[in-house]
Input
Amino acid sequence: MKKLLLSLAVVAFGSNLMCATDYVLFSKDNYASLEWTGDANGYKTTVTVNNKTFTVETIKNKASNLVKPGEQIRVYKNAQLVITSDDVVMKQVTLTASASDNAGAQSVNEPWTTSANGLVTTLKNEAGAKDVTFTASANQFRVANLVVSDEISSEDPKPVEYTKVNSIAETIALADYTKIEVAFPMTVAFVNYSNVFATDAAGDFIQIYGSNKFESNSIIPAGWKGEYVLFNKTTPEMKPESLPESTEKGNFEPKAVDADKITVDMVNSVILIKNVTFAAETPSDKNNFEGTVGSTTLSFRNNYSIAGVAAGVYDVTAVVINYKGALSLYVTNYTVPGAGVEDLVVDESTEVVYYNLQGVKVANPEKGIYIRVQGNKATKVTL
Output
């Protein structure tokens, strides 16, 4: 009986040795806790999982300057991703890309082999090794998930599961990093390089981040896949695997919103704020500035390098931004109220307010140059 129990114990022990152990080195759950050192030539971090230590490193190697890893590890063309460990003999490495145009089979040092299945690229080495060098040879590879194993899995990588969404409201109700299939069209309200602000039939807004060829009023067709992310825990975003081309045009008109009704909960909305008074010339470079509507002071930013305007009263189109919990309005356009309408009448009974050239309200102006604001008219005056 003792021999039988001993035999069973040996079998069980041997079976445990055969079980693969997976080590998650990089994911949405741990990226924020990793400390990367280095510069544009390369970055390095140390990760400890199950008391086993690994080093993950990016190396420039004739590639473009590297970006410090954050939510993704960006491995530009010809750059390398090197994984080493003194504790684990690695036999399989699974890399999941953030988008299909940043995925695919790349090159790897022998005797490692590489294969791709959609967003997932798998590196294998039957003999095992304590290091592996992965080179982005075809295109940039953006790593969203990195798992090392001490055994080769007999199963193919599981396909990515997508949640079908039929509106922006459904999308932003999802958990962070949910893979989505977008089943509804959207109209582009404003686009700035990789940042697209789009709205759906319900009038809700979301930001789409990624390479695109859209312009304002483009209709983004349904039927594409991506990932929902609450960027910086404040800004709802869709990160597409790839985007379809637009073949139709819509007619987006920003909704006018009262200045005292604008809140950070309207993040990503492209809105119109009427009769904003700027006491000084607005900046043409990326800078913050203020404007007033009645007794309400609003914080603006020229984040999109829009040409500044002279001091005066304007209708302003802007994107609502939640910047670290504070409201900011990123200007997309200025228009003069009643532009083209002759003989604009100013109510002479309206209070006259003076500002100095720094935009500070002056109760009792003395000799100097000021901005005189009365109703919706602002003029530069010398007293």
